[in-house]
Amino acid sequence: xxxSPLMLAWLLPGLVQAAASQDxxxxxxxxxxxxxxxxxxxxxxxxxxxxxxxxxxxxxxSPRVDWSNAAQTTGNTALVIVCPDSGWSIRLPVSINEKxxxxxxxxxxxxxEVLQEGDVKLVEVANPAMARNVLTSPxxxxxxxxxxxxxxxxxLRSFMVHAPYxxxxxxxxxxxxxxxxxxxxxxxxxxxxxxVGDAVSVRLSSGRVVRGMVQPDGSVSLSY
Length: 224
Hints:
The chain is an alpha+beta fold. The chain has helices at residues 5-20, 24-39, and strands at residues 44-48, 64-67, 75-82, 89-98, 101-105, 120-124, 145-146, 161-162, 165-167, 172-179, 182-190, 194-195, 199-204, 209-214, 220-223.
């Protein structure tokens, strides 16, 4: 078949454009690999949008993918695909859903028990409405003392545990009173249980009752 010069002039730009246009599906695959790498260390799922197939861009030998906004990498956000050679860039929407994880008890525990590593595990919180006050890491639970008993499978919430008591009610304690240029050491009896950093009431040998803060060494510090 012979083509007239006019017909060739009409066909050739389209043929050249088709031969040199960027494959949108290839860009989506590149973006998907980027997201797989980004999500690998995170407890999250994602859903990529689609590029407009009507868009015609020059083919790119080495396109690059990155976050459109590095400060927004969760929720409804976007990627940017850039071609350094041709100078074009396009945005690709992506929706990211962060999984909420919470700590649950693996066995029934009683009040006063100190939690060990095998007593807790992380599971996904299916209903975010149930995640209020739930501990998000086993490290926040291990070594803590239960305030009350709870059955196996219970969500472990922050108000259900406390740090181990460094001082118990009725225990003799050293009381250190300090101020600008002076320090006085005395002894007394604790009136309540308290962990390091908690306030504790102490009855001194003189009968006077004071309140101070429990120190890591088990003493009680008063400041004036």
